[in-house]
Amino acid sequence: MSSLPLPVVVLISGRGSNLQAIIDETRERELPIELRAVISNSPVAPGLRQAHAARIPTYVVDHHEFATREAFERALIEAIDAHHPRLVALAGFMRVLGTAFIDRYAGRLMNIHSSLLPQFPGLKTHARALAAGVVEHGATVHFVTRDVDVGPIIVQARVPVVADDTPDTLAARVLEQEHRIYPLAIRWFAEGRLSVREGKVLLDGRRQAAQGLVDRD
Ligand code: GRF
């Protein structure tokens, strides 16, 4: 493990509760990272205030100001690369990213998704889980690859679906787990403990129960 903290840039679009969990883990439990910048595509994202309160530099790259996705992503890349991150963490970043962007940060681009992937990729995961009648739901941290929400899974957390759950009650139960597993995945990455082999993420060279994964093969 390197003794220098890992430089990280976090991308957000909204509330920023996962960002706050990463900030808290860094400040209170010695997550070995340096949060160099928080970048939002929305100027009104509440998460910007949290970053500001934690004295992390904030930037807005507003997608509305660009004629094409390519132009937006070029500006986003410029804003990110100015901070030389070794990890780019998407934390509720609500823009679909193009291949040039994803390829540039291959192996060091992480996302948190509010379902047990590969179930329920995309939006409205909690309502869809309830409509499907699943008994178990959860969250996934994964490396980002070219297809949306299908990259190699680093860690998952499961929660039960209970009688009378609404999308909001279920979301709150899942969110609590998101705040646990995103800092954990970042810690493993910062400690150099993650590798990817044949599309699967290994922790210390093996598939581990701590990753919460059910090996289906
Ligand atoms: C989280 O549920 C995350 O899984 C999803 O978007 C939401 C962002 O929440 N990708 P927050 O902005 O981190 O509070």
Describe how the helices and strands are arranged.
Layout: E1 6-12, H1 17-28, E2 33-40, H2 47-53, E3 58-60, H3 69-81, E4 87-90, H4 99-104, E5 109-113, H5 125-132, E6 136-143, E7 153-160, H6 167-190, E8 194-197, E9 200-203
Parallel strand pairs: 1-2, 1-4, 2-3, 4-5
Antiparallel strand pairs: 5-6, 6-7, 8-9
Helix pairs in contact: 1-6
The structure holds 5-O-phosphono-beta-D-ribofuranosylamine (GRF).
Task: Give a written overview of the molecule.
The protein is α/β, with parallel strands linked by helices and 217 residues long. Helix content is 32%, strand content 24%. The chain is built from 6 helices and 9 strands. The protein has a 7-stranded mixed sheet with strand order 3-2-1-4-5-6-7, with helices on both faces. Helix 1 crosses helix 6 (167-190). The longest helix is centred in the last third of the chain and has 24 residues, at 167-190. It is globular and about 45 Å long. The two termini are 31 Å apart. 5-O-phosphono-beta-D-ribofuranosylamine binds next to helix 1, strand 5 and helix 6.
